[in-house]
Every structure is written in structure tokens, then in C-alpha cells.
Amino acid sequence: MRGKFQILFLLFVLLELPSYGITFSTTQPGGSTQKTINVESGAQYTLSFNFSGQTTKNVRLVLDDGLSHQYFDEANLMDGLHVYTFASFSDNVLLKFIRTDNDNLLRSFAVDNLYISQNKSQSISSSSFIGTKEYELVDQLGNVRVVLSDQQAGSKAFVLSAKDYVPFGRDARTFNSSYRYGYNGKEKDENGIGGGGSTYDYGFRVYNENLGKFLSVDPLVKEYPWFTPYQFAGNTPIQAIDLDGLEPVYVYHSTFYSSTAPKLTNSQWVVNVYTYSTSYGASSSTYQVDETSYNKAAIYNTENGVANAYTTISSRHDYYNWAHQNNNNKSKWFGAASIVTKWNALGAAENVNLWWLNDAADKFLTEGNKFLFGHNMNNLKQIRNGTLNGSFTDADKKTVSFKGLSGKSLDYALVQFEQSKVQEFIEQYKKGNPKVNMQDVYSSINSSMSSSFAPSEVNEVIKEHFTDAKTGKVTFDFSSYKDRVKLGQKLVDKLYEKEKEK
To answer: Would 143 be classed as within a structural domain?
Structure first.
């Protein structure tokens, strides 16, 4: 299991929520409440407040000086933030909220976060751009704790909403909790699915915070037999989140606080997750591998054959990148392996799922990549230790020996070794999946390799060595052992050429 850690600032405690507000109830049509505010004549001010029509939407706002100057008169106030700017003509203003229903029923509405502040710059003539941006403050788990407006209320931040959560994501304390994003930064569906209340879509699965469970079986259930298939965040929601509905991501809560990370096993490493929030609740995340812990784990995993520490094609792609840089310059093969496992090559079998790969090809490539990985890791172990001296029988029934090989000759033999293992996997796969149309699988993979969206190195090899000069037709055939070996060896050539250019 991978260890991923998130470092974020916890700023909720730095905010002071405003306490002034109005809650007004009346049975009288035309009933109103008002407040007189002292101001400076001739100065420009900004008035802001949150409005909630609890049992009525028929509320009118009037702002004047109590004499002859009226600044605003707005009927049927909408729920949410309201911001107004005006230049005062006297030493005070009168703010009125008037009920406009015509019945005699008890009606109520609420106004909170009511602020009035003097604008320092007299050049502002319009408030059309004020109050249009929202900023999220998140805690170490990515939970949206506070949402701020770009509108200031004096020297204080203007708070649109605030929320605390109990473990597994249910709401605790809330302040104007209508904001659409919340637990782990995910968008909340108030209506939910499955009949169990509100839910969050995590990508691979839908989560119900009232149940503390996902509503479908974990796609990686075979990788984690010690977990219930419906678990969320490894059943440890205080120290972990579930980034996409597949596996727990452990959070390192530091920055200003004395804390320790969850204890890593020898095979785990750290990934720092940085989440950036934009206006209107959008957010993006970047992931930065901690090189020290990754290097330590990769060495341990290589020496001990812990191939199952890398559970996806993308994680194995990262490992091949590491192996390319950490084999004492004895081999370029791992660099070629990292090219063909990129997201726009064989890595498209998971997550991206580009349109040229059908479902059958996805399954074949995902299982095949896993099958090969342990063999390739073992080769790296022997390369690093100087013990790669054995031999193997390739797919053409020829004996190939690693003994005495180095440089490009070694890499060519590594290509033959892996592609012989691919041929072995193909035969096993056909026996285990007799209903699969393998020609459709091969055709889908061929299309991915010849696509213009494939890695540039693959495009160059396909164009130079697998394209008919007269017809322009691509001749590469994944089902052919010789074609796969040729592709791999030409990619190795590209890496040696690139090294010479440096």
C-alpha cells in the first residue's frame, strides 16, 4: 500500500466570526425591523450582509438617511451575500428590512454578518466586482472548513460559511452551511443516491458520510483482503482520506504543529499532496514525491522483491523512472519501459482510458503489466548487485544469456526477456479468457501505439521502422514477438542517441 501525505495550513482558528445579526419574526403584513448606523457625511461606504428568508422570501431592503436621501430600495431579497456601496449625505444611515407578505401568518427571516465599512479609496464608483470571488480554507484532510468572500468587513475577513466535521464526514458545528463543497474537498450531493441521505462522488465510488461507507465494492478489494470492501480511508478517517475511492491516503499534519506521521513500513513512501482552491469552489491538486522516502522504499522493495507495493501502471511507471536513474548507468532498458508505460501509451489502460483502447485491451494490459513487473524488478536487483548472469529461452525457442553483457547488448537482451514473458502471458491469458476476441485486443493496442497522442519516442520509432514508405500504412503488430522486440530495441537506441546529444 502506498503512503501518501498531505501538508496543508489549518487556518480556521485564526478567524473571528462576526456575532452581530438580526432574526425577525412577525404576523403583521408590512412588519419591519430597522437599525440606525453612524457614518461620516461625504464618505464612501460598503454595506454587506448575509440574508436568509427562513419562512418568507418577500422581504424588502431600504437604505436611506431617514430624511430625503435614499440609497437603495430592493424588493424580494435573495438568500446569500449582499454587498452595496454608497456615498453618505449625512451623519447616519437607516437600514430597514420590511416584510411584504399580505397574509397574517407568522413569517421570519434572518440577517447576519452585517458590516458597514468606510472605503479608503474615493475612486471606487461601482461595486459590480465586489463579492464575486470565494476562497476556501481547508484543514489537513482537505475538508473545506471556511469560505471567505473577497469583500472585507473593516479589518476582518468576511465569512460566507464555516463548518466542522465529525470523523467520517458528518456535519458538526455549521455556520451558513449551504456551500456546495465540503468533506475532503468533494462536492456534496444533498439529495444523494441509494436512499441514505447526502453523498459525495469520489470518482471510482460514491461515499455516504452518514453510513461512513462507500456504496459499492472497492475495485482494489483483492489487493487489500484485510479491509471490508466498503471501507472508507482504511477505516482511519482522522489520519487518512480516500482520494479517489480506491485506497487510503495518509495525511501528515504538521506546519505550526507538533505532530508525527503515521509509521511507514519499509516498502512505503511519502507523497505530498498540495491542493489549490480557486473561485466558485473549483480546486486542483499537485503531487510531489518525497525523494528520500521514495528512494529508500524503492531500494528495499527491489532487494526484497516487494512488487506488490506498486499497485497501478502509473506507480510502476514511476518505479521504472527511478530504476532508469538508479542502476549505476548499467542499463537504458528501464528508461524505455518508463516511456511505454506513460499515461498516453500503455498507461492509458487505467484512469485516462483514451478512446482507442477498448475495455478488453484495458483489462489485458492492466493484468499483463502486473504480471511482468516482478520479473523486471528482479532483473534490476541483479543488475544493481552485479549478479545478472543467467540465461532464458526466448519466444523463438532460442537460448539467450545475460553473462558478460553490458550497455546496449544487455538492454537488447532485456527487451527479448520481457517480450518473451509477454508472449508467455498472452498464452496464459488466452487460456484463462477463452471468450475474449484477442484480435480486437491486438487491434486496439496497435491503434494506441500508432496514434499521434502516443509518446514522441514511440511516434518516431513507429514512423521510422513500422510505416510503409509508399502507402503510409502502419505495420506494427502487437501480437508479433519480433515486432515488439524491434519496437523495444529501437526505443533503447533512441535513449542512447539522446545521451550522445548531451
So the answer is: no
Structural domain includes residue 313: yes
The helix or strand, by DSSP H or E, that contains position 303, with its residue range, turns out to be helix 291-304
User: 294: closest CA among 262, 261, 272?
Assistant: 272
Same domain for 368 and 395, yes or no, is: yes
Domain span including residue 272:
5-11+154-289
Q: Is residue 320 part of a domain?
A: yes
Query: Please, which residues have CB within 8 angstroms of residue 211's CB and are 6 or more apart in sequence?
Result: 196
Gap between the Cα atoms of 44 and 120, Å rounded: 8
For the record, the C-alpha cell of 125 comes out as: 464608483
Reference 23, options 64, 56, 47; nearest CA is 56
Number of domains in the chain: 3
Instruction: Give the chain's largest Cα–Cα span.
Output: 103
Query: Domain check: are 176 and 212 in the same one?
Result: yes
CB within 8 Å of 130: residues ≥ 6 apart: 46, 83, 85, 150, 151
The verdict on 164 and 108 lying in the same domain is no
Exposure on the CB side of residue 82, measured as CA atoms within 13 A = 20
Ordered per-residue pLDDT tens for the chain, 502 residues = 222 222 232 222 222 233 344 555 666 777 777 778 777 777 777 777 777 777 777 888 888 877 767 777 888 887 777 777 777 777 888 888 888 877 777 777 777 767 777 765 433 333 344 555 777 787 767 788 888 877 665 566 677 788 888 888 888 877 776 777 788 878 888 877 766 678 888 877 888 888 888 888 887 777 777 788 888 888 878 777 776 776 676 664 333 223 344 567 888 887 766 554 433 344 445 566 778 888 999 999 999 999 999 988 988 999 999 999 998 889 999 999 999 998 878 887 875 444 568 889 999 999 999 999 999 999 999 999 999 999 999 999 999 999 999 999 999 999 999 999 999 999 999 999 999 999 999 999 998 888 877 889 999 999 999 999 999 999 999 999 999 999 999 999 999 998 887 6
Question: Is residue 140, in this structure, part of any structural domain at all?
Answer: no
Which DSSP category does 233 fall into?
A: G
